[in-house]
Each structure stands twice: as C-alpha cells, then as structure tokens.
Amino acid sequence: MHAQPEYLWWQDGIIYQIYPRSFQDSNDDGVGDLRGIMNRLDYLKWLGVRAIWISPIYPSPMADFGYDISDYQGIWPSFGTMAEFDELLDRVHAAGMKMILDLVPNHSSDEHPWFLESRSSRDNPKRDWYIWHDARPDGSPPNNWLSVFGGSGWEWDEKTGQYYYHAFLVKQPDLNWRNPEVERAMHDVMRFWLDKGVDGFRIDAMWHLIKDLQLRDNPRNPDYEETMPTYNQLLPVYSTDQPEMHEITARMRSLLDGYEERMMIAEIYLPIHKLVAYYGINEREAHLPFNFMLIALPWAPEQIAASIDEYEGALPPGAWPNWVTGNHDQPRISSRIGLQQARICAMLLLTLRGTPTMYYGEEIGMRDVPIPFGEVQDPQGLNMPDKNLSRDPARTPMQWDNSRHAGFTGGKPWLRLDKVFGRDNVQVQQNDRYSTLTLYKRLIDLRTQEASLRAGRYQPVYSDKQMLAYIRQSEDADAFLIVLNLSHRPCYFTPSTIRFGGVIEIDTFPEQEKSVVADSIPLSGDEGMVIRLESWAFQTSSIPGSLSAATTPVRPS
Ligand code: GLC
Predict the structure, then answer these.
(1) Looking at the structure, do residues 125 and 259 belong to the same domain, yes or no?
(2) Residue pair 58/72 in contact by the 8 Å Cβ criterion
(3) Looking at the predicted structure, is the pLDDT value of residue 556 above 50?
(4) C-beta atoms surrounding 28 within 10 Å
(5) Of 59-68, 364-373, 395-404, 537-546, where does mean pLDDT reach its minimum?
(6) pTM (2 decimals)?
(7) Is any ligand 1 atom within 6 A of the Cβ of residue 329?
(8) Domain termination site, one of 376, 409, 444
(9) Residues near 324 by Cβ (< 8 Å), separated by ≥ 6?
C-alpha cells in the first residue's frame, strides 16, 4: 500500500472570494466591512471552504473600489481598523481557515504619497517610480497603448510636461517595475502582511507588471469587433506578459518561500501555454496562476473537454492545477449559462483536479442584477456605457435571508439587491434539500472526504455535443465517475470505451441518489451526477491500433 502524498491547504482546500463591500455590513452604512465578515465566519466554516480571499481592504479613494490603493499598509476606515483586521485574521485561523489578501502591485492610486511625490517635479527621487514619458513631437502620447477601462493608456501631466502610463484608470498610475526601489517597496508590503500571519496573496493584474523597455506600439487586433471593449482593438504584446515577468514572479516566490506554507495565486488572463509559464521552471514562480478557462470558454462540452486535456498536458512537472467559475470582474455564472447549468458547473468545478476558487453568492446561484443607469458605480461601465460592461451586476450584496435588505445591512445598500432575494437566500436554501446551496454543500463535503476527488488523477472518459464525463481516482481510494449533461435536453451516456458499475452519490436531481447504475445511463436535461464506482474497465479494443481485445481492470469488482 502506498502512503497518500501530503497536500497543502491551497491544494486540497477550496478558496472562497469575498468582495468586502458586498458581503456583510455591520454598522449600517450600506457597505460591507471586516466585522461583517467576522459575523459570517460560522457560515463559511459550515460551507466547508478552506480559505477566504478578500478583495482589497486598504485605504483608497475608491475610484476602482479598492483596486486604487493610497496606503498599502492600512485599512480603509469604512471597512474597519487594523485592530479589527488582526481580530479577523485570528478568528479565521481559529476556525481552521486561511486568509488570502489582494495585492495590487501594478499600480497605486494617484493619491498615494509615492505618486504625489513622483508627479511633483521631474527631478523628484520618486519620479522614476512610475512610467513617465515625453510626448511625441506632435504632442500625442508616446505610443498607442490603450487603457483596459477605455481610452488612451497615457495621461498628460500639465505641471511637469510629460505623460504617465495607466493600464487601468487615470487614477491608477502604473508603477515602474524596472526600478528596483519599487520592487523593494512592494516586497516590504508583502512582508508587512506575511509577518502578521496572512497566508497568501492574490496578485492583481500580474501579467501587466512590466512593459516593453522601448515602449513599442501594440499591433492592431485583426479580430476586433465593435461590441468588444475598446482595449481589444490592439493586441497588448508590448504592454503585458514581458519576458522579465518571470524573474519578478520568481523573486516574489522566494520571498514567500521564506515563510511557512504561504502562497500566491496570480490574476493572469492569457492562453494556456503562456499561462502555465507562470508556474515557472521547478515550481519557482506562482503557486497558482489563475486558470480562467471555465469563464472564457463557450459552454460546450467538447471544447471544455479538449481544453481540460490541453491544460492537464501543459502543466509543468509539480504544478498544481486550479479552476475558477467567477469573480468580481465577470458576469456571474448563472447569468452566463442559466441557473440549471450553473449547478452543473458547480459539479464540474468541485470535481475537477485542482484547487477551486468560488465567488461569493455562487453557492446560492446569485445572478447578475440589472442596475439602473443612474445607479451605475463601476468605472468600466461608466466609461463605456454603450457596451454593457459594468461589473456592478455581479457585485451586488450577498443575499442572506428574507429580512430587509436580505440581512446584508440595516442601512441603504451601496448597490441594490436582486429583487428575488426574499426567496433566493442562504436561509431559505439551507433548509431546502433541492437548493443550489445544498448541492454546493454536499459537493464540498464529498470532496473534503474523498481523496480521489481532492487529489486523484483526472481521466477523460467521454465528451460529445451534450455531455462530458471523466473519472477521478487516487490509489487505494474509491474512484468516482462524473457524468455531466451540459444541455437542457435529455441524453444517454453509453460510452463504448468503458464498462462500469456504481452508485450515484450526488445528483443535481437528488431523487436519483443511491441508485445503482451500470454501463448506460439516461440523463435528464441539466442533470449531472457523481458516481461512486464499484467496478470499471476501459475497453482497450476500442482504441485504434490496440493489439489486445482484453479489458483493463483498474480495480477488481
Ligand atoms: C484586476 C481586478 C479588477 C481591477 C483591475 C485594476 O483586473 O480584478 O477588479 O479593476 O485589476 O486593478
């Protein structure tokens, strides 16, 4: 018998993203806060997540709701005090959970003292902490780079007669990572929080950190369409994902390695082959470069199956996979594929090989909430009003119960709640066997109990236009077959490549649970099932070129 390998918390646990403005308000100002999170720790513990990632909680003018930081080592007063932060961290640890903070190294707020100094004069010692450049002879910006949030990436500074670069808002000037003092300052920030006991960082906009030394123009994107964000007009080949990124990431990693069991999960929107490079050679870079495949791909089983294979195959040795279904920048999964399919997606997320990151509210099937024009808060929505790009709909307050404002606040919520909160909330769903919350809770419990689901290998079994099926298996542990119908219409799972027998452990239609199944299964539309296998055998004869017609017993029946 082989001993099971040891897995670290960020490998076999589930990460839960909290958008602090919207999770729980404790002082009735309509904005969530740290004490609010403390008041909901029992719920998170009950749900069974291992770590919480909290979006930025630092002092900020809130132009980008905390992603514009004016002090990297403080707490925004509306979220609470440093003493409350320390208390929250202690309580998270006491509950057996871990805490990941957002680190925003690419840019600060234009109100950060570093930038105030930098823009004060051309010979200020901090001038070079940001990316300043002369205008072209005709007065136009140094190059054609665009801002993710619309318009040019360059802002003219009248006083000192130069442009500065901002990948995001004008109020979010990019730091100059070619200056070693900037890197040192950011490492000090990391140490500050790590010394307090924080367990890791989610690194914001990681692939943006360093830019082409010559500031060359980005090429046009031939696939651009009018409906896309204006940023997509160009391919950001010179403004993102530069080769120097890998040294920067490796240096952050060695800093983390100086502490015990700390980690970084990096926000990187890149195709698979470029993404996996951020694991580094010999695991010397990010522990987990976020894999956004389930967000980016069409909800089509064949494509998803192929991409899972591609990802599994591209992972460097020792690299641990991860999966994400939503975050504060993306439409919610139930608005993208519908609630019934979001339940299938939950089953996929929680049974794939690799760390799942879930976004608050996904577990109750929260959907995008339409925000009337006059109430739009998100700068991305405000800057490109005709493109329906506001991120507010996915950031509305958590729906806890059917009391006023869903138990989120006693005041006026900063963003309106979904009108259906009275029937779709944690309290109602906790008491409903058929609810999405119950489905999540049971999938999380099963994953926590079963070695095969946490760490077993991923074996593709079947995919077609409706279905996706795979096996998860650890040595000396029960194996599971997961069969998912990614469509609303019924279908049959009758694979010619495998014979199997087992019992349905979890089904999106719980009526089916405990049923014994073998070889062929009819599935309802929107049905997904996790089957505990009792026996199975791949039919090698069906593999073209196979010499033997014998089956391969993996585990004796
Ligand atoms: C990341 C964040 C997003 C923010 C941007 C600028 O993409 O997830 O919310 O607006 O960086 O910091």
Answers:
(1) no
(2) yes
(3) no
(4) 11
(5) 537-546
(6) 0.96
(7) yes
(8) 444
(9) 290, 291, 292, 294, 295, 356, 357
Cα 67 to ligand 1 centre (Å)? 6
Q: Which ligand 1 atom sits nearest the alpha carbon of residue 379?
A: 10
Are 32 and 64 members of one domain? yes
Which of 70, 168, 209 has most ligand 1 atoms within 8 Å of CB, for mutation? 168
Residues 73 and 123 in one domain: no
Asked if residue 168 has its Cβ within 6 Å of ligand 1, the reply is yes
Which CATH number is 135's domain given? Answer: 3.90.400.10
Which amino acids are annotated catalytic?
204, 267
User: CATH code at 532?
Assistant: 2.60.40.1180
Show the tokens assigned to 30: 């309509």
Same domain for 145 and 290, yes or no, is: no
Could you report the per-residue pLDDT of 224-272, keeping only the tens digit for each? 999 999 999 999 999 999 999 999 999 999 999 999 999 999 999 999 9
Q: b vs e for 304-321, b when ≥16 Cβ sit within 10 Å of the residue's Cβ?
A: bbebbeebbebbeeebbb
What are the pLDDT digits (tens) for 479-528?
999 999 999 999 999 999 999 999 999 999 999 999 999 999 999 999 99
Centroid of ligand 1 to alpha carbon of 205 (angstroms):
6
Q: In whole angstroms, what is the distance from residue 108 CA to residue 443 CA?
A: 39
Say what the pLDDT of residue 539 is: 87
Per-residue pLDDT at 15 exceeds 50:
yes
Asked if residue 1 is part of any domain, the answer here is no
Handedness of CA 499, 505, 511, 515 (dihedral sign): positive
What is the pLDDT, as a whole number, of residue 305? 98
Probe residue for ligand 1, chosen from 21, 53, 55, 64 as the CB with the greatest number of ligand atoms within 8 Å: 64
CA of 329 to the centre of ligand 1 (A): 7
134 and 218 both lie in a single domain: no
Please tell me if the CB atom of residue 64 comes closer than 6 angstroms to any atom of ligand 1: yes
Pocket of ligand 1 contains residue 204 by CB under 6 Å: yes
Domain boundary among 444, 479, 513: 444
Quote the CA–CA distance of 33 and 48 in Å, as a whole number.
22
Segment 49-60 shows an average pLDDT of 98
Residue 499 domain boundaries: 456-542
Q: Would 175 be classed as within a structural domain? A: no
158 and 190 belong to one structural domain: no
What is the Cα–Cα distance from 135 to 219, expressed in whole angstroms? 20
Residue 4 located in a structural domain: no
**Which ligand 1 atom lies nearest to the CA of residue 168?**
6
Mean pLDDT computed over 126-147: 98
For residue 362, report the distance from its CA to the centre of ligand 1, in Å.
20
- Do the domain assignments include residue 328? yes
Cβ–ligand 1 contact at 328 (below 6 Å): yes
- Residues ≥6 apart with Cβ < 8 Å to 441: 46, 47, 48, 363
